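Preliminary data (for renewal application), adenosine-5'-triphosphate complex.
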Amino acid sequence: MPERLDSPAGPNPSWHALTPSQVRSSLSAQGPFSAQEARERLAEFGPNRLPEVRKSGPLARLARQLRNFLIYVLLGAAAITATLGHWVDAGVILAVVVVQTLVGFIQEGRAEQALSAIQHMLAPKARVVRADGQHMLDATELVPGDTVLLEAGDRVPADIRLEKCHNLNIQEAILTGESEAVGKLPEPVDEAAVLGDQSGMAFSGTMVATGTGRGVVVRTGVNTEIGHISGLLASTPSLKTPLLEQMDRFARGLSIIVILAGLAIFLGGLAFSGLAFRELFMAVVGLTVAAIPEGLPAILTITLAIGVRQMASRQAVVRRMPVIETLGAVSVICSDKTGTLTRNEMMVTAVAVGEQRFEVTGEGYQADGRVCMDGQEAGNHLVLSELAKAAALCNDSTLTERDGLPVIHGDPMEAALKVFARKAEFDVETITDDWPRVDEVPFDTELRFMATLHHDHHGHGTAYLKGAPEKILDMCRKEVSDSGELVDLDREKWERLVTGMARDGLRVLALARRPMAIGTTELVIEELSEGAELLGLVGLMDPPRHEAIRAIKDCHLAAIRVKMITGDHALTACAIARKLGLRNPDKVLTGRELDQLSDQQLEALVGEVDVFARTSPEHKLRLVKALQALHGVVAMTGDGVNDAPALKRADVGIAMGVKGSEAARQAASVVLLDDNFVSIAAAVREGRAVYANLRKGIAFLLPINGGESVSLVAALLLGLTLPISALQILWVNMVSSVVLAMTLAFEKPEPNVMEQPPRSRDQSLLAGFVVWRVVFVSLLFLAGIFGAWFWGMHQFADQTVARTLAVNTLVAMEVFYLFAVRYLDTASVTLRGVLGTPSVLIAVSAVVVLQLLFTFTPWFQVTFGTAALSLAQLAFCSLTGVAVLLILELETLIRGRLFRAARG
Ligand code: ATP
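Predicted structure:
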């Protein structure tokens, strides 16, 4: 075995200055590795990954919790009460600081966990050739000596010495700072060449802008160029979203106002009221704690984090956090067709050659179907065989078997063509050996065709072409007749045939051949533009996904318009659109028609057209802009490198995780793990649920603060003793409110979330209904607290009992209000509503137990100044809670009536 030049410890040769074969022999990697060899090398060289940025440790997370305005206030209050010698009060306040810090600490930890889990779902992939064929592997599994394929949109997975390049341009800004993509060629360059000039190398982390390439991995992991520079991966994104920032700002602003007001009340009280310093001080501390919504930011953060996790479990991975909010407001979804709305399990079902028409039978990728004519097996047919040869040679897919079932590698459509070639009794394996490929023009969505050049053993060259019929027909003057002779192309006949197949919903491909001069070793696109001989057409069936039909219906119900954007033929697109149940399946706009429209004309049309066919990626950008100009909140899917601008521009850019390029993933804010339209609809539903839960969190927590602070201010103004003491308020806010509010983050979407129109994009969380609810419920709470206190004082003439009654009434109202808030817009007193969810029931039980401890155990009674209550008194508390629920139920009913009356 030749001596290895490269190992993590060994010297680092100038791979760019060696020829590809020298590189291969240095790495003892003459051909693709077997799985065993790859495993051995992986054990030797280690996984191909860079160390991750160390996340901030638990201590830093803890410190972050302490850097909080309310904590400062509480610490200050604890210090003052301690200096005054009120040790119990100081102790309780410190305990509250500990609880608040711990709650924040645990919640932030959970949010971080949710985020880092999704990061791992987006691990980069690499196209690797191993002894048993082409695989899509995790890039971490690459080893030096592996053979890797690159295409436009890929992120280069390791440092690679290129062996073959086809129009390969790579964007290396990450390494060189140069934003222009640089051309790549396999020839060695001078040993002294700087990185930017090492044109035979593709470096890890850079992006393929155009073309295709093949090469051998020379360095992995920390030994790569990018490994030398950064050595670290980007950190996980933070959970900051515009709405959260808005709420943070709100909470901070409110805290400052409350503290200033508290200070004013304190000073005013000292000067004018006869209250003692301690009493006044504790009243102001109580008021401050009562009015600041301390739990709110934490609840909102955890709601978002849970939303992110929920979406990931529905196969939609969020890459940019703010998009969770936007998802719920989506009003138009523009989706690719193939693989997203359809199954991408293709099968050739119709063939046309010369004057003959064939049907192809069979199931999926199984080779046991037949090519038939009028129900009879077709038998040998000269041109059919030539067509099958073209289908097998002008093809990058491979078919293997596992457990007797066919396994495809590469494009499903190409795999279907290979299956067809087998059904036409064509020896696919032998032909690829007899006619090796010398060069190729890879498929490109702009070109809409691909071509391969093959030589037989005598050096005769033939190019085989396949692609969109109009493209291939443009290149042909002749067609091959049934007898194998060349005759003039009957374009009209072929166009009629294409129309017929497309109307049936088939994807139509034309196949052709072009004899090349002896000795030709390169394909030049311009030279292919004429002189080809048409072999025939194939029609492929790609059935719609059943579940997509249902999901589209759901979207329509939710007033979300679904549009299909495809590179396919207009008639094929219409036929599929009809099967899918799109709103307007018969009106189609093609890429060419789109080019002729001005932006204004497009805006006038785009709302009503649901099918866009024969489009190129740049059309997507125009469509996004036009739909946004109509105030749409647009979700757009994409997979290719050229889709990136549209994905970036869309309100929600959605990349395909399976067939999508790395460039598309980077530009997108959401990545679908299964490329399925259903996951988009599910993400929108989750987005709406998250927004609703944020609203519920706010609608739940703010009235508690509101009710408490209004009660305290009212008491102070009326010169009454406080109905609830400062320590009791701390107890309610830190214990029952937090425990109850936490359950809202886990709320499932309400059954009618997808029956309402999308909310407007810039609707504030603190507007309209939520504000009304906060005010209304604050007043209900005020009435409940005072009612309980007055009743307590009047009946029992005992302040301790009256306060205990007021606190328990407040907590009971919170518990019942939780049930009301879970269904903001629909009835809450239903079987489903009353039964709650496991988390609601656990939280409510916990709160009941805590309140019993608070009321009946001596330690709590001494600490918080509470007294045991009688059954009748406890019943009073609960009934007040029930009353709140019933009043709100009535309010929801009236609101619903008013809303319907306004609409009707
Ligand atoms: P979408 O996924 O957006 O629905 P699509 O997959 O139908 O689009 P493209 O992949 O852009 O669209 O393909 C456009 C056209 O190019 C196809 O209708 C077909 O005629 C042709 N085509 C697609 N793939 C190949 C291929 N591998 N070789 C040759 N021609 C192809």
